[in-house]
Specification:
Distance between the termini: 52 Å
Largest sheet: 6 strands, antiparallel
Number of helices: 19
Shape: globular
Helix content: 40-55%
Structural class: alpha+beta
Oligomer: single chain
Low-confidence stretches: 1-5
Radius of gyration: 23 Å
Number of strands: 12
Length: 497
Amino acid sequence: MTEPALRPLFHFDNSYARDLPGLAVPWQPRRVDAPSLLWFNRALAEELQLDAEALAGERGAAIFGGNEVPEGATPIAQAYAGHQFGGFSPSLGDGRALLLGEVLDRHGRRRDIAFKGSGPTPFSRGGDGRAAVGPVLREVIIGEALQALGIPTTRALAAVATGEPVFREGTLPGAVLTRVAASHLRVGTFQFFAARGDIDKLRLLADHAIARHDPQLAGDPDRYMGLLRAVAERQAALIARWMHVGFIHGVMNTDNMTISGESIDFGPCAFMEAHDPDAVFSSIDTHGRYAYANQPLIARWNLARLAEALLPLVDADDPQRAVAGATDVIDSFPALYDRHWLTGARAKLGLARGDDGDQALADDWLALLQSQAVDHTLAWRYLADAADGDGPKLQALFEDARPLHEWLARWRARAQAESSMPAQRAAAMRRASPLYIARNHHVEDALRAASADGNLQPLHALLAVLAQPFDERPGLEAYAMPAPPEVTAHYRTFCGT
């Protein structure tokens, strides 16, 4: 009697590997000694139409550790370039990552499944291609935190301990991350082929990106300029959302900016506590290039690099027209960003309709927070409580409450023009301003416990809190509170490579 065929664990349809020859290198993940699942995102697996039950045990550990390449996968290391802290590197690529394949999720959306830390590739440039438990779990935490906040982001599907050491400043336990993305196309992907003058591959790449992310542009004679506009729109919306929750990416190189508008590559990232436009937590950002307030400016700078890469496709017969059109898109980015930012600020201020004075009202609120080093997250959240008549918690954040009372008088006068009742307004504001973020000291506690002792309880506890960032729950007060100032003053993050 013939045994029934085993149901495939993944239903791959790998358009990048199939349709873009020469844009990546076929490669295999490095085998590891003793793969074991640290964390598995069952809900995401089900969203991707995977067999979550089969992947939650030893079989999943073998696959996500790189020891078993599932049927239908075509692992490749993608090529890309990038401006890193302003300096151009013409050849970067997936130095420790592999695109395993693509699947269609339950909504019909194409999603990448990729490894990070799966061993060296032709793009490793002398690196070992591996990752440690701490940086891998940081990606888990930040991705899930942003997802719950409603911010477009790549997400972790699994984290696997390899049972092998990784050598950095010291010896660390090794791990592999499995990451899911709308795609791994970056500004740097376009720069790679533009820098080589390979217009045919550049056009293939751009048409692939359009088919995947902006299919309405397919066949449009001006589709490459349309792609630039669409990426600018997505990035303006993304960065505005980062700014509203105090998120600092930390390393906004062009190889870390996606075409899809998703957040990606969570190395030296952090959530700001005391509101400070100059806040920097990355140990490698010594000049503040990627400081909190600079993020919209850097997004525009990165988009200009994308525009440069696309110019040969926009209008080869009239380069001046191409430059003029691309310049218009880049020059319009600040207004585009301001529109997205103000829309979000109005929601956080409890204002449903627009008024000419709203920008100044929001700007003055942030200036007030900066002047007294008030916690960004709690200030916004307690403002919602103040809308509902509970003002003492907000006032307690300020050393000098007089400027606060002056601003609150302006805000309440403005709110009177709204049709909603105070309780309704407060509820809407709480849906826009989280109580719980990935506070840096809690993140570090979870990573330290997992790395040093193999204790995953702090990780699971933190992820449970972050899964519902807007809902106040008794017993979780410590997760809402900032770290002591002496801790925050010296807090630094690292890229994890």
